[in-house]
Amino acid sequence: MDIVKIENLVKRYGSTVALDHLDLNVKEGEIFGLLGPNGSGKTTAINCMLALLKFDRGSIQIMGEEMAPDHYKIKSQIGIVMQNVAVFEELNVQDNIDYFCGLYIKDRKQRRDLVEDAVRFVGLEEYRRFYPKKLSGGLLRRLNIACGIAHKPKLIILDEPTVAVDPQSRNRILEGICELNRQGSTIIYTSHYMEEVEQICTKIAIMDHGRSIAVGTKEELKGMIKTGETVTIDAVALGEEDLEKIRKLPHVFDLAYQDQTLTVRCTRTSNNLIQILNCLQEKEIPFGRVFSELPTLNDVFLEITGKQLRD
Asked: Residue 242: which CATH number?
């Protein structure tokens, strides 16, 4: 079943096209990653999805129904955690969570149990009486998440939830997202941190200039590109003749040499490293650290779009 179905979505701001005939399908039970640089259209797509923005063309269905600003039944089954923390400075941790949960759950006893579950889930038991201004950035992000998921929504949308948090809080947040998914929530997760998307998402869409340019599992996306292996060798002194010899090796299709670091991209994974090192040893060229890496989502994005993800 499609939890979210977006077809031919167009959104313009004057002459600027923010979403360019966007198509997306999110199936029930997925952790669906939207990967793209700032300005690629991720947040605009979410705001349209939530009926917070009017769009120029296309359709959006949520849980099989056409989304509209007054479709409160559908909205009550959605949890939203936006990039900018949205909590009340005048309320402590527990009261903040209770307030946001109360937007959906009117029964006080049920809400009390849900708030307690949310406090425990994000690990804020010791901070329940703290006010937001007393929390660290990582704890504030956890509070923001608790406010968005306390009512146990069927669909949870997280827009860059780990921006500017410490590694410990980031790991706690990512583990929590996976646990929410195991408990039955479908997750839409937007980020420009490739490693996070690769770690937790079961399906990924790469967005650029308001379009979905590639969709699949991380293995499927990596299978779409030419790169099979990237070899990096530090501290080498190479002349143009040496570089040309390496360029002519079987399966080498791209080579870069800068600041005494050699980077070679190959179309397959076997024997590339050995062949490159043999070239260096034949010329008695000294080298330092050697790395061999299989394709990453960054390689996928670079090859498909021609630019680095974090431009």
From this structure: 3.30.70.100
